[in-house]
Amino acid sequence: MRKLYFKQLLLVTTGFFLTNLAVSSAYGQEAKQLYEQTCAMCHGPSGKGDGPNAQVLQPKPANLATALKGKDAAYLTKLLKGGGASVGKSPLMPSYEGILNDEQIRSLIKYVQGFAAAS
């Protein structure tokens, strides 16, 4: 009986993981495109704050690998919806309220959190 329960649990867990992996891959591609369209011009292709627009901005865009450490999704949602000034950062960071929907914001947050996780 215990072995059967363990096998069922393992199947359910594996199925859940694979489903989330497929969804995450689909969101990952969309999120990468969103990042490239909305963030990379300032933050650069790998989030180091070295995008083409960074040369003329003061203050310089944040290196996301370090700036996002310890920041949760609620903070990043507020940042994306309200712009930099909403969290005490640069007012040059625009608000994406009304430009990105909640699903796009969530997928973008997961994408940029990868910069901090990779460092």
Radius of gyration using CA atoms only:
18 Å
Q: What is the helix/strand order?
A: HHHHH
Mean pLDDT: 82
What share of residues are in beta strands? Answer: under 5%
Number of strands: 0
| Low-confidence regions | 4-26
- CATH topology, by name, is Cytochrome Bc1 Complex, Chain D, domain 2
How far apart the termini lie comes to: 45 Å
Number of domains: 1
Percentage of residues in helical conformation: 55-70%
Name the CATH homologous superfamily.
Cytochrome c-like domain
Shape: globular
* Name of the CATH class: Mainly Alpha
Continuous helix count: 5
Class of secondary structure makeup: mainly alpha
**Biggest sheet, in brief?**
none
CATH architecture title: Orthogonal Bundle
Give a structural overview:
The chain has 119 residues and is mainly α. 61% of the residues lie in helices and 0% in strands. The protein is built from 5 helices and no strands. It has helices at 2-38, 40-43, 64-67, 73-82, 102-118. Residues 4-26 have low confidence and may be disordered.
